[in-house]
Write a structure and sequence with these properties.
about 25% strand; alpha+beta; Rossmann fold
């Protein structure tokens, strides 16, 4: 078993990992930027080391500083969390070369699956259904137009190295495609330092369904069911739930089997998520694979009773997964919402500031993952998500009721949050009757 884990992250996911390590008797090292010196993850870890000034490029993305911290503290492993360097193949490669265990897949797989066009081809070869589109990259505007006319509009241009909803544009005709081509190429270059693009058919009004998998280093793999992540704003997830009640049992089973088969064929290890688009006919298509822990992993933990972070650490320690697929059972319904320090009335403008009053909801079936506390100063430097509220009920109706109660109880004074906006979603009749898709927020709010 690993002895000391350095957490190459901050905020609630760093706290989440520290708690899992504590329960396993593993020592932890927190890294922090100068502006994060009073953060909760710094207070909870066994050791903490400052790695640079506030900007991410000089701290949480500073590979040299992070690895120096690991060496100085004697950490034998690094958990990257999500975001930052969690899907950086070069970071994972250097960890491997230094003999520090990267808690995730090997760098070759991160590199392969991080390139969306290569990932699509890989999954296609593994027998996973993919959205019709380009065979690899699109190298010119002319090529994009010719392909779009073949597979029919609407089409979607995507940055190969894209993520987090960036580098994506939809075109409904030739004129839009020609205009969007230059925009996506420029955005991809700025955001990812890689302007390569690919094109695929845009599946209209789909549900965004993902499958959580675990795979060990001995060839064993299982899935932990699906999550419906269709409530999105500008391709950013806002609310997630499981099970996805839009699926029938046949489709659910097939999606899980396809996901497990794919990870076995490519030799994937650790936790990962295969994301699909599901159309109105219940046909599903591979979208991308995330080679890390997901923000929304708690909903899966709530219905399966399996601690995914602990499983990541066990797999990284060389252990075999102790579960067979037949051992995985699903109880009730779980839902998660992301509480962000932002103002929905001002185009969701981030709101940094000091928390002057705080009350977190509780009760049966309610969990809050957060790193905030009374008097904590939210920095303006990083992502605006400050908490996740997760509920578990006997069914979807019960989960919605619990979540509404939890949001009504939540108090975060001193900064503006999106909690009232979340409440409006929960009270929407289409959402309550499960009649929504990825366009739900743009149509209703």
């Amino acid at each position: 078993m690993l002895k000391k884990v350095l957490i190459a992250n901050r905020g609630e996911i760093a706290v989440r990992i520290i708690r899992a390590c504590r329960e396993m008797g593993i020592r932890t090292v927190a890294i922090y930027s100068e502006i994060d010196k009073d953060s909760l993850h710094v207070k909870l870890a066994d050791q903490a080391i400052c790695i640079g000034p506030a900007p991410s490029a000089k701290s949480y993305l500073n590979i040299k500083a992070i690895l120096e911290a690991a060496c100085l503290t004697g950490a034998d492993s690094i958990h990257p969390g999500f975001g930052f360097l969690s899907e950086n193949a070069n970071f994972a490669k250097i960890c491997e070369e230094m003999g520090i265990k990267f808690i995730g897949p090997n760098h070759q797989l991160i590199e392969l699956l991080g390139n969306k066009s290569k990932a699509k081809e890989t999954m296609k070869k593994a027998g996973v259904p993919v959205v019709p589109g380009s065979d690899g990259l699109v190298y010119s505007k002319k090529q994009a137009v010719e392909l779009a006319e073949k597979i029919k509009y609407p089409v979607m241009l995507k940055a190969s190295s894209g993520g987090g909803g960036k580098g994506i544009r939809i075109a409904y005709n030739k004129e839009e495609l020609e205009k969007q081509y230059d925009i996506v190429k420029q955005e991809a270059k700025i955001s990812f330092n890689d302007d390569s693009l690919y094109l695929e058919k845009f599946v209209e009004n789909p549900r965004h369904i993902e499958i959580q998998i675990l795979a060990d280093e001995h060839g064993n793999a299982i899935h932990l069911g699906e999550r419906d992540c269709s409530v999105q704003r500008r391709n950013q997830k806002v609310l997630e739930e499981t099970p996805a009640e839009i699926l029938d049992e046949k489709t659910r089973t097939k999606m899980g089997e396809v996901a497990v088969k794919a990870v076995k064929e490519i030799g994937y290890t650790n936790a990962g998520t295969i994301e699909f688009l599901v159309d109105k006919n219940k046909d599903f298509y591979f979208m991308e694979m995330n080679t890390r822990i997901q923000v929304e992993h708690p909903v899966t933990e709530m219905v399966t009773g399996i601690d995914i972070v602990k499983e990541q650490i066990k797999i990284a320690s060389g252990e075999k997964i102790k579960y067979k697929q037949k051992d995985i059972t699903f109880t009730g319904h779980s839902m998660e919402v992301r509480i962000n320090a932002e103002d929905p009335d001002k185009n969701f403008m981030p709101c940094a500031g000091t928390i002057t009053g705080l009350h977190l909801p509780g009760g049966n079936g309610i969990r809050v993952d957060t790193a905030i506390y009374g008097g904590y100063k939210i920095p303006p430097t990083y992502d605006s998500m400050i908490a996740k509220i997760i509920v578990h009920g006997k069914d979807r109706k019960d989960s919605i009721a619990k979540m509404k109660s939890a949001i009504a109880e939540l108090v975060i004074d001193g900064v503006t949050t999106n909690s009232d906006f979340i409440l409006k979603i929960l009270e929407n009749k289409d959402f309550q009757s499960n009649k929504y898709d990825t366009s739900f927020l743009s149509k209703n709010f």
